[in-house]
Amino acid sequence: MSKVKIAMMGCFRSGTNFAKTILEQNYNCEVKNNVFGWKHGLLPIISADSNAQYHFDYEKAFFITKNPFSFLSSLFKYHLSVKRNLIAPNEFKQFIRTKIIVFDQGQANSPQLRFNNPIDFWTMMNWNYASKTDFVHIRYEWLVENPEVIIERAAGKMGLERISTNFITPQKEVKRINDAETTKSLEDYQTTVDFDKGRYLKHGYMTDFDSDDVRFVLSQLDDELLDKLGYVELVENLTA
User: Fold this and answer.
1) Which domain of life is it from (predicted)?
2) 24 pairs with which residues across the strands?
3) pTM of the predicted model, to two decimals?
4) What's the pLDDT score for residue 58?
5) For position 26, which CATH number holds?
6) What residues have CB less than 8 Å from 27, skipping those under 6 apart?
7) Distance, first Cα to last Cα, the chain
8) Nearest to residue 183, comparing CAs of 12, 7, 63, 20?
9) Would you state the torsion angle of the CA atoms of residues 158, 164, 165, 168, taken in this order, to the nearest 10 degrees?
10) Residues of the chain with pLDDT under 50
11) HSE (CB half, 13 Å, CA atoms) of 184?
12) Are 147 and 22 in contact (CB under 8 A)?
């Protein structure tokens, strides 16, 4: 039986490779990174009379999100350690409050996206993804806490067939995986670095934020999007 082609979207550091690993290791599917141009980019709007054709090679699709606080923490660490694809300050307080430029460093003349701050980035990207009603939404925090339950629910919505007898979940940090790589066993997907689940299960990322930071983030969030993504209760608990 041929593998189901799954399109995947998500912001930087939102858990795309983690979700890809679990889906491909447990279900008869092939998760594709760049079906719509770039998995970390916006879904395009193509007019009916455009020379471009609105035809993309996929059968099902999902997007994955982190809650805004864990996203900001992860994105800042990515910015400092990887030093790719972002133009932004290197100090956390400035980082969350200042404009951010996003681009694909793999392209010599990549177009750029400009956002007022990383919260604006989180809002615009996830609003765009959530607007596609045929996309399945996966919340990263839920996936880390209950991987089999959450991925089984998503797989059911996408009509995927289970192939593993014992559910396979990465115990190490996963690699950044592109579509050209050959991945078969779990070892092909993960690094040798232990995965710190506690950072998400116990919300350790909140130590990055002082009270002023929390107030600023809350002032920038879109309540309608928080509700749409199912983060209202979590954000209230994190900031109580």
Assistant:
1) Bacteria
2) none
3) 0.95
4) 94
5) 3.40.50
6) 4, 151, 155, 160, 161, 162, 163, 164
7) 50
8) 20
9) -100
10) none
11) 1
12) yes
